[in-house]
């Protein structure tokens, strides 16, 4: 009696060819695994929606309001309370002590605050990543010199260092504030990069590339960097929200952005004396600032969980 073949045991050449063409059996890359984890994370989607909203607000404020944020009317709008019946006409969040629309200033203030946060994050990632990569790969006196330099800057608090440096500028813009924060904010990235490079430079694929005659630049950029960039991205994403709040703190202290620049920090600083009479003048920009910082922190947590296999 002939032996029966179960359906799931039948393997034809056509089935094998179809499986190979569809990519079945191929190992997924780190990026594919991370995206698969992110798609199922509510933290990623919640923070992503908030960040897209704020980024669109910063890039295209005219989509949200056509009111000039610097237009003042002290007679009719001095500290006027919110008027919920006119949502997009500038009355929604009331007016400040200059008779300016709080809603319009909040919308337009997103641009300066987010620009500072993004610019500082890019700068500290490049500088800190470069310093950490050199220290971790070469070791020896290079590592000792760069590590001691990092320790020196680490001993200076970010807020205090930026406050001291920005005192030298009589006219402070988003670019000068970014420079001040980036000067004292790259050390954590450098340490994270250094530790990751020290671990990866001992790997077999790096030894094989060196034996085949690959130069230092090729080894660093083609073999080591793709395998150490994950932790750096996580730290940079979480730190971005902190840089936005630090910019607001500097503006609150009168050392950050200045008029006529419209930013959340500037408005919070101007509203501190009006908190009792018109709390909405302070609460509205402070709430938007808090939501933005929270969104970046949540996004960083989601990316960290996706890139770290031990947290899955």
UniProtKB/TrEMBL annotation:
It is a multi-pass membrane protein. It is found in: Cell membrane. CDD domains: TM_PBP2. The chain crosses the membrane at residues 42-64, 114-137, 149-169, 224-244, 282-303. Residues 1-28 are annotated as: Disordered. Residues 110-300 form the ABC transmembrane type-1 domain. GO terms for biological process: transmembrane transport. One of its GO terms (cellular component) is plasma membrane. InterPro entries: BP-dependent_transpt_permease (IPR050366), MetI-like (IPR000515), MetI-like_sf (IPR035906), OppC_N (IPR025966). Keywords: Cell membrane, Membrane, Transmembrane, Transmembrane helix, Transport. It holds the Pfam family OppC_N. The keyword Magnesium does not apply. Belongs to the binding-protein-dependent transport system permease family. This is Oligopeptide transport system permease protein. The lineage of its organism: Bacteria, Bacillati, Actinomycetota, Actinomycetes, Kitasatosporales.
């Amino acid at each position: 009696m002939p032996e029966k073949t179960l359906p799931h045991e039948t393997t034809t050449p056509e089935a094998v060819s179809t499986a190979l063409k569809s990519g079945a059996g191929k190992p997924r890359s780190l990026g594919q695994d991370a995206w698969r984890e992110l798609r199922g994370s509510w933290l990623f989607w919640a923070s992503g929606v908030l960040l897209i909203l704020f980024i669109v607000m910063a890039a295209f404020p005219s989509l949200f309001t056509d009111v000039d944020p610097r237009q003042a009317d002290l007679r009719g709008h001095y500290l006027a309370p919110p008027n919920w019946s006119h949502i997009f006409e500038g009355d929604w969040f009331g007016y400040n002590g200059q008779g300016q629309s709080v809603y319009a200033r909040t919308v337009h203030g997103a641009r300066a605050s987010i620009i500072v946060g993004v610019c500082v994050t890019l700068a500290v990632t490049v500088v800190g990543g470069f310093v950490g990569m050199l220290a971790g790969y070469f070791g020896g006196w290079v590592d000792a010199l760069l590590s001691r330099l990092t320790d020196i800057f680490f001993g200076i608090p970010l807020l205090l260092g930026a406050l001291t440096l920005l005192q030298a500028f009589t006219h402070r813009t988003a670019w000068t504030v970014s420079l001040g924060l980036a000067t004292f904010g790259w050390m954590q990235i450098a340490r994270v990069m250094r530790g990751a490079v020290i671990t990866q430079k001992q790997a077999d694929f790096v030894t094989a590339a060196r034996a085949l005659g690959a130069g230092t630049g090729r080894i660093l950029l083609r073999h080591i960097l793709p395998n150490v960039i994950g932790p750096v991205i996580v730290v940079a994403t979480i730190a971005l929200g902190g840089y936005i709040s630090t910019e607001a703190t500097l503006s609150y202290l009168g050392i950050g952005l200045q008029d006529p620049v419209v930013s959340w920090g500037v408005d919070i600083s101007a509203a501190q004396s009006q908190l009792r009479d018109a709390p909405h003048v302070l609460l509205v920009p402070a709430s938007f600032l808090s939501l933005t910082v929270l969104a970046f922190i949540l996004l960083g947590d989601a990316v960290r969980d996706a890139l770290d296999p031990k947290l899955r």
